[in-house]
Amino acid sequence: MEEQGRAENEDWIERAHRFGVAVLKLVNRMPLSPGGRAMAFQMAKSGPAVVHNLEEAKGASTARDTYHMTVIARKEARECRRSLLLVRDAGLLSGRDLEWAVSEATAFVAMLTSGSKRLEQRIPKGRKRF
């Protein structure tokens, strides 16, 4: 059972890695306008942060640390998703790669919301504060 949980985490991390790479490739295609630069900077931080925080969660020594890093990964996924939507709606970029990234960010938000709720239940009552 624990093996299955580990494999599932590996899948999330690899999927998040592919997402981070895709976001960075989109960032490299952004226009050099002031808006394009600002959004590129934002996306370059939040997209790869999803995989960084999941990797940290994987190596956490306590359930509370795992929960905390998973919640941060969820926040970064939400931030990146909103940035991708702004880029799309402002007409800064378009195409299948962008639509895939929006879809993947939305999926990460859902997965990490569900995962963080399950992790929160494992933390003993009175120990949820950071």
SSE topology:
Elements: H1 2-28, H2 34-58, H3 63-89, H4 96-122
Question: Can you walk me through this structure?
Answer:
The protein has one domain: Up-down Bundle (de novo design (two linked rop proteins)), CATH 1.20.1440. Helix content is 82%, strand content 0%. The chain has four helices and no strands. The longest helix is centred in the N-terminal third of the chain and has 27 residues, at 2-28. The protein is elongated. The model is unreliable at 1-6 (pLDDT under 50).
First-residue to last-residue Cα separation: 29 Å
Overall pLDDT level: 88
Runs in which pLDDT lies below 50 for 5 or more consecutive residues are: 1-6
> Shape from CA axes?
elongated
- Give the CATH class: Mainly Alpha
Largest sheet: none
The percentage helix is over 70%
CATH architecture: Up-down Bundle
| Beta strand % | under 5%
Number of strands: 0
Radius of gyration, rounded?
A: 16 Å
- CATH homology superfamily name: 23S rRNA-intervening sequence
Number of domains: 1
Q: Which structural class should the secondary elements be placed in?
A: mainly alpha
CATH topology: de novo design (two linked rop proteins)
Question: SSE order in H/E notation?
Answer: HHHH
SS element count, helices? 4
